[in-house]
Amino acid sequence: MASVEPILVTGAAGFIGFHVARRLLEQGKPVVGLDNLNNYYDPTLKDARLAELAKLPGFEFVKLDLADRAGIAALFAARKFPHVVHLAAQAGVRYSLIDPHAYIDSNIVGFTNILEGCRHNGCRHLLYASSSSVYGSNTKMPFSVHDNVDHPLSLYGASKKANELMAHSYSHLFKLPTTGLRFFTVYGPWGRPDMAMWIFAKAIAAGEPIKLFNQGNMRRDFTYVDDVVESIVRLVDKAPAGDPAWSGDHPDPGSSSAPWRVYNIGNNNPVELLEVVRLLEEAIGIKAKRDLLPMQPGDVPATYANVDDLMRDVDFKPSTSISDGINRFIQWYRAYHRL
Question: What predicted TM-score, i.e. pTM, was given to this entire model?
Fold first, then answer.
């Protein structure tokens, strides 16, 4: 029988939050979706996602800002969520160079409010979005959760690393089970307009040049959104218990004696950006104009996820091929824009 206790999904009008909320609702689980509907990108896309969720039984929407301390506290006190999937955040590496305060308000202050809500109201498992950006200047590939991640290259990456540390302190002090999700270049239908896949598709369709940084010599572990969702829904009921063998003499960065874990959520198969452009050209049927540019501040040349821990713990590994994923994205993109 499906659980009657609602799951809180923050960022439910966002890209990954929408997909997670929809999957949980399809499984018969009631969802309270929280979002502040800010204008970081076109809110009509967020409204369209919410309209899709509203069609499914068991969905309830709450418009609230993470930084609203009293509002978040009141919501948690009233609903006592047993599971929280916290996906709301100020996203984007490049925007963190322009408006750093947005990242502190949402990703640090907002996350504190979520942690406090969970701590005081009996939450049995908090899952939260981290990012491959925490790997920063690490170059040993593939990136492993057991590697040290102390050299972020953007405030966005630093805020996600801070989230992992904050979660650990709550797991240690208050025995709150927390799981951090290090996402690797997620793409797919209902994506964000500030993401490479959308930017490239829009430019190619309009016959405008696409900007390829580092002369296009970038490799990304592109991860299709359905694979991300499958990973998350499998982890919801897998609250970490803490590793009794963990040792402070030889501290493993990827686990703890506290009920705290982090996982890489990636495709484990990095793809050249130029190959992505070729597949987009094929799917759209138009040749791209390329504008080759130098590396951008805060960017990294490659990402590549080691997902051994995810496979071991939930028996799943993201595996949607980049060609299948791009074709599905372009099908949706054409339908959404009525092209």
Answer: 0.95
